[in-house]
Structure formats: C-alpha cells, structure tokens
Amino acid sequence: MKAPSSPLVDASRRAFLRGVPALTAAAAVAPTPALANDGKHQWAMLVDVRKCIGCQACTVSCIQENIVPEGSFRTVVSTYSVKLTDSDQPAGTYVLPRLCNHCDNPPCIPVCPVSATYKREDGIVAVDGDRCVGCAYCVQACPYDARFINHETNKADKCTFCAHRVDAGLLPACVETCVGGARIFGDINDPNGELSRRLKEAQPELKVLKPELETAPRVFYIGLDERFTGKVEGEGTLWKPRNLHSSAHG
Amino acid sequence: MNPNIVETINVAREVAWLPWAVQYFFLIGLSYGAWLLSLPGIVFRRPGWAGISRLALLGALVCGLAAPVALLADLHQPGRFWHFYAYFTPSSWMSWGAFFIPVYLGGLLMYAWLAFRPDLARHAASGGKLAKLAGLLAYGGHESRGALKAAALLAFVGAALVALYTGAELAVVQARPLWNTPLLPLQFAITAFAGAVGLVLLFNRCSVRDEAANRRLAKVLAVTQVAALVVGALWIALGLSGLFPVHAQALAEVGPSANWQLAAVWAVSATVLTLLLAWKRPGSGLLIGLLALHSAWMMRWSIFIGGQEVPKTGAGYYTYSLPLGPEGLMGIIGTAGLWVFLFVLITTLLPLDRLAAGSTDKAAA
C-alpha cells in the first residue's frame, strides 16, 4: 500500500522542479566564455597538447554536432608513435589535435573565386554555403589540410569553431567534450577571460602550426614538438578511414 | 623519411581537383598551343605553313570547345557556374579565368570562322554532308583579312591570358610547394605547345601525310623538348642549390616517393626519346606526335593528381586510385568522347584532307 506523501516533501519537490530550468540555464551560461556575437569578440583556441589523451572524443562530438559525412573530418587528433632514446620504453605516443586554424591571414579567402569563404567579424573563417561553387580551390590553398569537399552538400566544408553554438553562447562541441581539458576556447579580446590568461601564462612556449607561412593562426598550442609544426617527417599513416564516396561510385 | 616517427592515426584527404581538371588543363593547353601554330600559315602566310596552320586551327577549335565542359564538370556545384560572373573576386586567379576563357574562346571562334569561311562555302557548293549547314555558316564565304587579323589579336590576348591564369592559379598556392614555383606556368606553356605540335602531327598523318610539313613540325617539336629539358633542369638545379627554398621543399617532399621517382624517370625518358626521334628521325610523325601528347597529359596528371597525394601536414603520402565513375575514368572517357564528337562534327563541315592540303587550289584538285 502506498503511503500518503507528506505535504512538506511535495512542496520541496515542486520547488525543486520549478528551479530546474533556472539551474540548467545557469549551468549552461555560467562557465561559458562565449556570448552572443556582438562583433567585439575575437574567438580563438588554445590546445594544450600535454593534456590531450588522444581519446578522439572531440573528433566524434564534432561529427555528431556538425553532421560530418562518414570518412570526412573537421577535426581529428593525429596520433604518432615516436621512438624514444632517453627511456626504457622503446616508443611513446604523441598526439596532436588538428582543426581549421581560423587564420588571421587566411590563404583560403583570397583564392575563392566567388567570395564564398570569408572571415566573420568575430574572427571565425566561414563558408557561405549558398554561394560556394565547390571548386575546391580553398581546399588546395589551406596549408593545414583542414578543408574538404562535403559529398553530401557538394560544397567546401571545414571546422567553424561551431559558430552556431558560439552564437548561442555555447562552447564548440570539441571543447565541451574534451576529456583532458586540452582545448580552451575563448575571446582573445577579453583580457580577463580564461583564454587570455592561459595564453599569457604560456607565452614563452606558445606555438602555432607552420609559422613560416605567416598565416597568423588563431589556434595556439602548448607543448607542440618542433617535429610536428609542419609536414611531419615520418612513416605514413597506418589507418585510413574508409572512403564511402569513392567506393560508392567506384 | 624519419623512421623514428610512425603516424598511426590521421585523416587522409581525398583528391579534390578530379581528373576532369587534368582534362581541362590538357585540352585548353592544346587549344592555345595549336592556336599559336595556326598563326604562321593563316595570319602571316608563311610559305609551307598553310596546311599545318589550318590543321592546327582545327585542333584549337576542337580542344577549345571541349575544355570548358571538363572544367564545368570539375565543379562540385556545376549549376552555380554563373556565380563566377555574379561574384567577381579580383584576388582569385580562378575568378579572372572565368572571364579570360570567354575572351579566348570568343576570339578563337571568330578567328576560325573568318579563316574557314571560304572552305565552308566550298563545302556547301560541293554538296557534301551537312552542305546546307556549311552554306549557312559560310554566310557568303568571303575572305576578310582585316577582320581576320582583328580576331587574331583578340584571340591572342585571350590565349595569353588563359596561358597566364592556368599557370598562375597553381603557382600561387603556397600550401603545395610542388605547385608554388614561378617555373610552373612556363612548364605548362611549353608542354602545351609541344602537345599541340603532336596533335597536328597526328592530324597530318591521318590526312595528307605531307612529309615537308611532318619534318617542319618535327623540328619545332625538337625545340620544345629542349626547352622542356632546360626548364626541368633549372627547376632541379634551383632545388638542389637551395637558391629557391620552395623548390628544395618540393624536392624533399616528393623525392623519397617511389611513384615520383618513376614519374620523373618516365618524364625525362619520354622527353629525351621524343627529342632524339624528332631530331634524328623526323619522319616518325605518328610516334613523336603521340609521345608529345602523352607527355603533355602525363605532366598534368602528375602535377594535379600526384600533387594532391602529398599531405600538407601528415606523414607519408595519400594514395589515389582512379574511380571508375564520373569522378574518375568515366570523366576521362567522357571528355575524350566529347572531343571525338566535336572532331567528327567539324571535320564533316571542313574535311580534314581539304584543310591539310593547305592551299584551296590544291584542295579543290
């Protein structure tokens, strides 16, 4: 037989349930450095390689969030086996999260023949899908292999820093899901923000990929090994994603 | 290659400029190269060049009309080609190219029409196949030298701009050291011209088999092969000497690859063989013609497809296998089919033998 519920318990449960939306909203907003785009922000990312565990949670969440077709990737954690000379272990693992660098001097923009690729006021390099002709010139011009042709849309595709989430005051999906807290996203124009603070602290060891190309990336790295800043000299990848597009047509 | 680093997980980016692009650059190169060969006989009326130049103009026309179709097919959104004209972007060579192509093709069509008008009228009068159409196109069949020279000037401007943009489009891509060299536009132009000479040699062989024309073309072809070897040697010398860091970087990227080593040996051997045959046995028109065409195509295949097999950040190389569908083999065969269709159509109106005979009197006989 069910015991009658106490009016006190009921009242507190009701109060609790009434408070849930407020708590949820607070949880979503409070720790988030991203706010609705008012044109003053300059979004950037700091990747602390030392904290990355190579779990590819970022890779998976990006695919889920952005409906990236199978076999294509907007971000991935490149993983390398590196022979060790100063250890009892024969080899160690080096991981390097890669994504669009949202360069301040992006080589993909001037080559686009229809001005479909552009830099938003908040620093995000974006593609106007209504204008893109799928010529793939930007794919060739990106020095980071960050772009590809999406075979479902037949347009140029790339990481957008999850602009749709950022505009709504949320963090990019890869940052949200990073297990080790290796990806820090924020506004470099906000001197009190976590990103600015972390960038300042890490200043002496801060690096970017391919600095010699002077693309001024907005993705910064801590713990980036010199051997991995450009095209990696090593044995080619052992695992490749199945290319559904080729096999479907081939 | 550093054996101490093994890439275990990375993204393999697929080729984004497809074999359609190779076909476009091959055909448009043959077209402007053949158009240049049409000048001595048609515009400058150099003795002994009439047949060569008329065959060359046929080649320029067939290749020039087929090329833009291949280019359109390489777009992943071909229905949006009009965006090129609606959203002109001066910082992009491709955007300029969209305007240069119509200038060249407009000039070429005008020039070809003015050059072939009397032949079209003759075909209409002879009552051959599509005689009515030939008569309509001839529009009186008059020869107008002034207009021909004006059209030649327009086509020259267009051809020069097309040669410039097709080379520069790749040469500006810093992300690919193999493409990022000022020598690439020159290499494209030389091999395009050599391929055009090869095409005319083939046309000559398939029509009147004019030995004098064959020898003359073989001589020109030999010069192009020397030029190709000199520029190739300069490219390697600049890379090895370190004077041009981007060449050194390109060499370092492709040097260790067995595929690239084979491609380099193949290219040099084919060029040397063509040179020796053209020089020592100028009568081997069919063989040297095919060799020159093959070299022009292979060069573009290696640069485009091979170039995209070099990862920009990852280790090793991406592997490309030719798909059998429209984005691969069918694209190549389809472009070739279009070329054959245009060739049959145009040579029905302008029979090959009549063009190759050079002078209209000879053709009439």
Automatic annotation (TrEMBL), chain B:
GO terms for cellular component: plasma membrane. Signal peptide: none annotated. It is a multi-pass membrane protein. The keyword Cell membrane applies. It comes from the Bacteria. The keyword Magnesium does not apply. The chain crosses the membrane at residues 20-43, 55-73, 93-116, 150-168, 188-208, 220-240, 260-279, 286-308, 328-352. Keywords: Cell membrane, Membrane, Transmembrane, Transmembrane helix. It is found in: Cell membrane. Belongs to the NrfD family. This is Polysulfide reductase NrfD. It comes from Thauera phenolivorans. The gene is nrfD.
